[in-house]
């Protein structure tokens, strides 16, 4: 029997945010397979890619996560059929980021009469304000301490740290003195070979701030070498035969050579320190220093050529020279510190890289003409000259016909011509006819300019924030005049993290108003404490009564049935001293437990007193609910229920409550009333869009990868 293609994405909790680069990885591999340097995405896996019938990307350009949850009940088909859902990071040039690496460059049209298939990509000066280097560091020069990775950054980028899993037995450099802007810099680089143990060091180089080589030593691995990786490492079996130096010798020498306030510099230095099995507290990583958008990194070879004007890792030489690489990393860091972020941003490294890649594409083509009939048929919101045409060009070169349908046509000159008369219904009809003939399609459905005004968006944002606040808020009471507030807070705190608690005294007897951080906590309080005795009183627990909250029960029910929450349960009542390791150990006996997610406060980084458990089967989650309710962990009694918020939604709710609170409340009551007509129209449009997607989806062949994007306007 023919194998069916499928997508597996194990992201959960705070990892449910993907970059455009990661989306590009997915689409490129799905469309091209292992050809044209396409590899399996780093964040998910496509099984049996060769059996894919096609890739369809539906773009709803003016809509974002805000629209999806504002009109959640209207998107009936979308939320029930599409099993994987992720938050997409913003992009300045959405279509370019979808189709190629030059996502942040504004394409410039070729000169009139030119027959070139690509164009030079020169960012405008105003774009420098959006440069990731400026966004990360600002424009002013700073001392070297501003560029040392924080503990959080080291953890995120897999640096060996004290107490981290897998770092037992690692040697600490003991360079624990306070760093200043005068602390000495040292460049470090290692070459590794593959052994039965994994990656092991075969050569280590250390250079000082003047570029002098202090250490350049061959190291004999402890385990049997499986692959010398000579092409990259330059190491051969013959070179290592007479070597007596072992890893502990190198560790001892490095500890002696480094002063107590040393700052190590390297390119993706985490790999070198992991191979050295050493922990060092202060590092500058040039692969992160020269920041790019969406998690991508420049290669050291490119940075050395573009920034320093040096050629390293030359192809005619066998393998890399670690001393040369260590020196290049060090000089790059020195250049960045001396010149400052503004000067580095002015180098327009993205432009240089794109120009190089375009030149390579042209050379590789050797002036071969594209096959007839492989020209892109339709264009969305950008001119046809994408900053990196590689993705669509590769499809055309392989004889495939990418289909782009939207509200813009291509004329004979290749420039985008508005075709605003094309309705979503006409686009759908064309898609139903043409998508089966194409292996890669991008279909755009638009709302229209009248629905993307800042006034309307601000109003929708306030409505969603207000509704979320109502859903997160409960009222409890009545209590006795002299009730113990501490007891009430403790009891309701067992349902989940409390954002605020206030006592209401305007009533005949006191009540409390509690706003939670997560929807599950508020729902758990309503379900478990309504009618219970708290602080000596039999109380009623309810949500606020408002027009916006009238469909709250329907929303809660639909969220609980959401495919994203299948097999996921919420557990509350954890003590803040409980660690993730404690919970892994405590819940290890639960059958089919797949993942544990412990939410953190996005400002303080401290974990909350609740967690989410994801199970492989829904039945296992239901069985776990019965076991966990009333379970005691480290003296704390647990409460649990089915999950309502997937990882990306939990994060978004937190951001809505903390970031947009003041913005939304600036909208006047009169303006909010004016939104009602537009909102009614939008509700109908969303329902219609959901039906369009349903029709398109049902027309697709089996084994088609379908992605729906809400990129938003900013």
Automatic annotation (TrEMBL):
GO molecular function per UniProt: exonuclease activity; RNA binding
SUPFAM superfamilies assigned: Ribonuclease H-like, RNA-binding domain, RBD
SMART domains noted in UniProt: EXOIII, RRM
Keywords: Coiled coil, Exonuclease, Hydrolase, Nuclease, RNA-binding
Alphabetized CDD domains for the sequence: REX1_like, RRM1_NEFsp
InterPro entries with a match to the protein in the record: Nucleotide-bd_a/b_plait_sf (IPR012677), RBD_domain_sf (IPR035979), REX1-like_exo (IPR034922), REXO1/3/4-like (IPR047021), Ribonucl_H (IPR013520), RNaseH-like_sf (IPR012337), RNaseH_sf (IPR036397), RRM_dom (IPR000504)
Pfam family, one: RRM_1
Gene3D superfamilies: 3.30.70.330, Ribonuclease H-like superfamily/Ribonuclease H (3.30.420.10)
All copies of domain RRM, residue ranges: 472-546, 567-645
Highest taxon above the source species: Eukaryota
One annotated Gene Ontology cellular component of this protein: nucleus
Stretches of the chain forming a coiled coil according to its record: 672-699
PROSITE patterns linked to this entry: RRM
Identification of the protein by name: REXO5 exonuclease
């Amino acid at each position: 029997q023919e194998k069916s293609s499928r997508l597996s994405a194990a992201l959960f909790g705070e990892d449910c945010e993907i970059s455009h680069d990661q989306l590009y990885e997915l689409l490129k591999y799905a469309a091209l397979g292992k050809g044209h340097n396409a590899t399996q995405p780093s964040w998910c896996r496509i099984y049996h890619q060769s059996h894919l019938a096609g890739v369809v990307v539906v773009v709803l350009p003016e809509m974002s996560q805000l629209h999806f949850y504002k009109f959640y009940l209207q998107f009936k088909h979308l939320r029930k059929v599409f099993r994987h859902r992720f938050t997409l990071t913003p992009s300045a040039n959405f279509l370019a980021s979808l189709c190629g690496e030059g996502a942040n460059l504004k394409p410039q049209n070729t000169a009139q009469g030119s027959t070139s298939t690509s164009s030079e990509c020169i960012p405008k000066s105003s774009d420098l304000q959006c440069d990731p280097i400026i966004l990360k560091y600002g424009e002013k020069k700073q001392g070297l301490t501003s560029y040392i990775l924080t503990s959080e950054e080291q953890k995120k980028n897999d640096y060996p740290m004290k107490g981290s899993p897998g770092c037992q037995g690692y040697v600490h450099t003991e360079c624990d003195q306070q760093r200043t802007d005068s602390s000495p810099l040292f460049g470090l680089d290692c070459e590794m070979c593959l052994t039965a143990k994994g990656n092991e060091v075969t050569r280590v180089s250390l250079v000082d701030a003047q570029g002098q080589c202090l250490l350049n030593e061959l190291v004999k691995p402890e385990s049997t070498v499986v692959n010398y990786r000579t092409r990259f490492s330059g190491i051969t079996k013959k070179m290592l035969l007479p070597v007596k130096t072992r890893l502990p010798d190198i560790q001892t020498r490095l500890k002696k050579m480094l002063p107590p306030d040393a700052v190590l510099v390297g390119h993706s230095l985490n790999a070198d320190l992991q191979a050295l099995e050493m922990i060092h507290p202060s590092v500058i990583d040039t692969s992160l220093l020269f920041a790019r958008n969406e998690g991508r990194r420049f290669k050291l070879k490119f940075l050395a050529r573009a920034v320093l004007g040096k050629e390293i890792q030359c192809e005619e030489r066998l393998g890399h020279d670690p001393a040369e690489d260590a020196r290049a990393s060090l000089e790059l860091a020195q250049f960045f510190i001396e010149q400052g972020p503004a000067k580095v941003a002015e180098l327009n490294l993205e432009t240089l890289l794109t120009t190089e890649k375009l030149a390579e594409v042209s050379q590789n083509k050797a002036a071969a003409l594209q096959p007839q009939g492989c020209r892109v048929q339709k264009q969305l919101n950008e001119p046809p000259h994408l900053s990196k045409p590689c993705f669509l060009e590769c499809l055309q070169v392989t004889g495939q016909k990418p289909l782009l349908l939207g509200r813009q046509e291509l004329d004979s000159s290749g420039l985008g011509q508005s075709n605003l008369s094309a309705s979503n219904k006409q686009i759908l009809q064309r898609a139903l006819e043409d998508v089966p003939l194409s292996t890669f399609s991008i279909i755009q459905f638009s709302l229209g300019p009248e629905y993307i005004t800042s006034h309307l968006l601000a109003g929708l944002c306030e409505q969603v924030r207000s509704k979320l606040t109502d859903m997160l808020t409960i009222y409890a009471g009545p209590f006795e005049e002299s009730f113990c507030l501490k007891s009430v807070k403790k009891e309701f705190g067992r349902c989940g993290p409390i954002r605020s608690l206030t006592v209401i005294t305007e009533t005949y007897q006191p009540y409390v108003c509690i706003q939670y951080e997560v929807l599950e906590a508020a729902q758990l309080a309503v379900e478990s404490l309504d009618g219970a005795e708290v602080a000596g009183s039999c109380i009623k627990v309810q949500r606020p009564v408002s027009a916006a909250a009238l469909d709250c029960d329907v929303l809660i029910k639909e969220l609980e049935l959401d495919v994203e929450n299948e097999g996921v349960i919420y557990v509350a009542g954890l003590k803040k001293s409980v660690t993730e390791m404690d919970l892994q150990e405590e819940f290890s006996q639960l059958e089919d437990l797949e993942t544990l997610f412990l939410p953190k406060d996005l400002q303080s980084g401290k974990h909350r007193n609740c967690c989410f458990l994801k199970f492989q089967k829904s039945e296992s989650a239901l069985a776990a609910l019965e076991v966990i309710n009333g379970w005691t962990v480290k003296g704390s009694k647990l409460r649990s229920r089915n999950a309502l918020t997937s990882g990306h939604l939990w994060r978004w709710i937190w951001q809505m409550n903390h970031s947009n609170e003041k913005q939304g409340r600036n909208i006047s009551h009169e303006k909010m009333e004016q939104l009602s007509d537009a909102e009614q129209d939008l509700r109908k449009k969303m329902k219609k869009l959901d039906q369009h997607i349903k029709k398109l989806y049902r027309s697709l062949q089996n084994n088609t990868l379908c992605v729906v994007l809400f990129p938003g306007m900013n």
